[in-house]
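User: Reviewer 2 asked us to show a designed sequence for the structure in our supplementary figure. I'm pasting the structure tokens here. Could you produce the per-position amino acids so we can include them in the response letter?
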């Protein structure tokens, strides 16, 4: 099966690696070509010079870009996806996108007879490397079943959440929870540290108690206490995700003061810490405000 993958970023590259072997024949495209060249050298995938070139001859196209807007922008123009896409193809967008833009992209591709599915993922870079991602899908049943064999190459829990846009919506709510947990635990641990209580000890207690979460059990234990702060998922992308969740709640006329507040706070953190900061580095802003570092 000929598959093309567009967007070899932090999560896209390890996802695409699973498709660079039989029964798939993979073509890749990345905006910064040197990254695609390195990927091609490592995996044997065909490296395309443009999106149109990448999708030529493919029955399935996968994108993994920062937002739905970059995906939409890739469609048109002489080198765009639509210039090379065969009718009746399948387009799977693994970007953590927004439902409204995904619906617009689906309609545009539909004019070409191409089926669309939003399929954002969760599980981080390590989950992608292990082929164990959760994949939240938005499509009709037939499109979902058509996509499943490809998604199974990197996904473990693969769920159709509803029609186009539903995968994006579930992902955004998941990300709101992630952002809320990171912000709340940052406030709590900085306060405990400033009061002279060991954050390592506090985390150990919390992780055996009702306030524990993935953030306390994994992220803060492995990245904050150790001061390792690896850069695997940008704060800028998490801020984008929580903003999508707030917008989604607003569109559905659901009051969401907490999600909106955290979206606003993450925008402040993004401005303060910069576009390359990792999402867990959010704690550094709280530390700066409090004048106290969380250290084991
Ligand atoms: P990165 O910033 O690491 O990579 C972004 C990718 O998009 C790169 O390939 C980049 O190309 C490309 N890109 C950026 N802007 C454009 C543009 N204008 N036109 C074309 N290509 C562009 O992001 P991630 O890989 O981390 O994230 C990708 C998506 O996956 C996001 O929606 C994110 O929210 C989601 N996600 C990320 C996770 C993670 O752990 N990292 C986990 C789950 C979801 P270039 O190399 O040229 O910069």
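Assistant: Here is a per-position design you can include in the supplement:
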């Amino acid at each position: 099966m000929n598959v093309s993958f567009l967007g070899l970023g932090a999560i896209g590259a390890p996802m695409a690696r699973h498709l660079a072997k039989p029964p798939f024949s993979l073509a890749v495209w990345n905006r910064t070509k040197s990254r695609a060249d390195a990927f091609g050298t490592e995996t044997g995938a065909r490296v395309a010079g443009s999106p149109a070139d990448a999708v030529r001859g493919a029955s399935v196209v996968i994108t993994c870009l920062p937002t739905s807007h970059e995906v939409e922008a890739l469609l048109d123009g002489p080198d765009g996806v639509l210039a090379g896409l065969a009718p009746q193809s399948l387009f799977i967008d693994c970007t953590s996108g927004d439902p409204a833009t995904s619906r617009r992209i689906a309609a545009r591709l539909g004019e070409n007879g191409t089926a669309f599915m939003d399929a954002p993922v969760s599980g981080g870079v390590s989950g992608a490397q292990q082929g164990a991602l959760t994949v939240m899908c938005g499509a009709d049943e037939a499109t979902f079943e058509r996509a499943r064999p490809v998604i199974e190459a990197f996904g473990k829990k693969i769920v159709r959440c509803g029609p186009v846009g539903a995968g994006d919506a579930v992902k955004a709510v998941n990300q709101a929870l992630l952002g809320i947990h990171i912000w709340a635990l940052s406030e709590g641990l900085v306060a405990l540290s400033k009061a002279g209580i060991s954050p390592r000890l506090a985390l150990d207690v919390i992780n055996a108690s009702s306030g524990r979460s993935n953030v306390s059990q994994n992220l803060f234990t492995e990245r904050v206490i150790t001061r390792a702060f690896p850069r695997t998922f940008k704060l800028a992308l998490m801020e984008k995700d929580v903003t999508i969740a707030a917008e989604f709640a607003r569109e559905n006329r659901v009051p969401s003061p907490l999600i909106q507040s955290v979206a606003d706070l993450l925008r402040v953190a993004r401005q303060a810490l910069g576009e390359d900061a990792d999402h867990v580095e959010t704690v550094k802003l709280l530390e700066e405000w409090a004048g106290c570092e969380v250290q084991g």
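For the response letter, you might also mention the following. The mean pLDDT is 97. DSSP finds 14 helices and nine strands in the chain.
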